[in-house]
Amino acid sequence: MLRLRPYKMSDARRIVTWIADHDAFSAWCADKLDWPLTEASLEKCHAEFAERDDSWLMTALDETGGPVGFLMMTKADYIADSIHLGLIIVAPACRGQGLGTAFLELVLSYARDILGMKRVTLRVFDHNAPAKACYRKAGFREVSLDQACFAHGTECWDCWNMEALL
Fold first, then answer.
1. First to last CA, the chain
2. Domain ranges of the chain
3. What region does 132 belong to: left with phi over 0, alpha with psi -120 to 50, or beta?
4. SS3 of 141, please?
5. DSSP 8-class letter at 111
6. Is the peptide bond between 67 and the residue preceding it cis, with omega within 30 degrees of 0?
7. Cα-Cα-Cα-Cα dihedral of 101, 102, 103, 104, to 10°?
8. I need a surface site. Which of 31, 36, 65, 67 has the fewest CB within 10 A?
9. Per-residue pLDDT averaged across 55-71, rounded?
10. What is the spatial distance between Cα 110 and Cα 29, in angstroms, rounded to a whole number?
11. CA-CA-CA-CA dihedral for 102, 106, 107, 113, to nearest 10
């Protein structure tokens, strides 16, 4: 059984182990955090979000209460009933088992049933096929493509804007 709760700093020691290399890091956070990912950089992110009314971090827990997923909910707009997801990640050992889809379905239920949102958005790099497939399975659809919007080394990555209507 998967559970969802607000992020706690004790989650950081596991989350930092989920990023294999700089390419995976960039695909995950578009370099919005410092590489290499450390517990301190997650603490800084958590502290920044604690000061904002429209953003927070969430953790998915497995049946033992251990962290297996992490994301941010941001840009909460209670007039437009919309929220944006980012920094979505699932523990590597749990990938390919449907846990990512279950995590997102839980987040969508939270957004709809607890927050009263009608629209959830996210962005994903075009080359990240497993993530796009997971988002589609959870109910997201591609809305628009931003071409060459992120420079990574000698490459420029395209990014899809996706949404789920609740």
1. 23
2. 3-122
3. alpha
4. strand
5. I
6. no
7. 50
8. 65
9. 97
10. 22
11. 150
Per-residue model confidence as pLDDT tens digits over 137-155: 999 999 999 999 999 999 9
Domain 3-122, architecture per CATH? 3-Layer(aba) Sandwich (3.40)
The tens digit of pLDDT for each residue in 91-104 reads: 999 999 999 999 99
**Those residues with Cβ within 8 angstroms of residue 102's Cβ, 6 or more apart along the chain or in another chain:** 2
pTM of the model: 0.96
**C-beta atoms surrounding 156 within 10 Å:** 11
Neighbours of 133 (CB within 10 A): 12
d(CA 67, CA 87): 15
Alpha carbons 116 and 27: distance in angstroms, whole number: 30
Distances 122 to 1, 8, 108 between C-alpha atoms, Å: 25, 23, 12
DSSP symbol at 115: T
